[in-house]
Amino acid sequence: MASLLIRGLGWRASDGARPWLLRGVDLEVGEGEFVGLIGPNGSGKTSLLRCAYRFNRPDEGSVSLDGSDLWRQSPRWSARRIAVVLQEFPQEFGLSVEALVAMGRTPHKGLFEGDDREDGERVSQALERVGMAHARLRPFAPLSGGEKQRVLLARALAQQPGLLILDEPTNHLDPRYQLELLQLLRKLRLSTLASFHDLNLAAAFCDRLYVIDGGRILASGTPHEVLSAERLQQVFGVHALVDRHPLADHPRITWVSSP
After folding, report:
1. If we measure between CA atoms, which residue out of 95, 98, 170, 178 comes closest to residue 132?
2. According to the model, what pLDDT value does residue 17 have?
3. What residues contact 14, with CB distance under 8 A and at least 6 apart?
4. In this model, does residue 88 exceed pLDDT 80?
5. Domains, the chain, ranges and CATH?
6. Is this model's pTM higher than 0.85 or not?
7. 4, 39, 214, 242 - which has most CB atoms within 10 Å?
8. Ordered strands of the 163-167 beta sheet
9. Are strands 239-244 and 82-85 parallel, antiparallel or unpaired?
10. In angstroms, rounded to a whole number, what is the distance separating the alpha carbons of residues 23 and 141?
11. Using one digit for the tens of pLDDT, what is the confidence trace for 99-152?
């Protein structure tokens, strides 16, 4: 497990002439924590995640993993410690499920080093964990969106990361697999930072939440502390009823349409 610390982060497009898309962002993921990032479309969620996994280089502030400045380390150093699952599906070039998951072992291999028994075991374990072992020899391309998402999570797990970063991990999944995936992530107890559109899922599974809007963090805390009707109205511009879930100790949100 790893800890992520972001302090005073600012970022804008590479030409430097556009407005700041992120400014003054502070965010922390402790060891074994499941942290959610919520906010409306265009609020800066994906841009912030890209800074956290060393894709967008910040113009201000710092990103540290286990006390080490991420941008003072090599891409290989980062890839051994951070695994990322994005919304978009990769160009798989005819790969089988097994071959795609095996790509998660790349950061641990030398330039001309082939796969060994340990690599095979890691791939098999990852596929078992996400319930896709039965499809290991199938091609990736014709899988359903939900199956692809689970295979990509398996690739991330095969990478043996200390930190998982997920951009809308439940986006392509039906309700059953949404719950199964998030339950799996909770059981793993890996340090995890994930963006969510579905606030009820974020409330049910995240230890803490950060609310981002206009490139700035507006609030952070437990789901009970963050998810108030007033804040949801402020950030999303929609009325909501927020109460306690009848079967669990987390908030439940019901969106209320205007008359």
Report:
1. 98
2. 57
3. none
4. no
5. 1-81+161-222 (3.40.50.300), 97-160 (no CATH)
6. yes
7. 4
8. 82-85, 163-167, 191-196, 34-38, 208-213, 216-221
9. unpaired
10. 39
11. 999 999 988 876 667 677 888 999 999 999 888 999 999 999 999 888 888 899
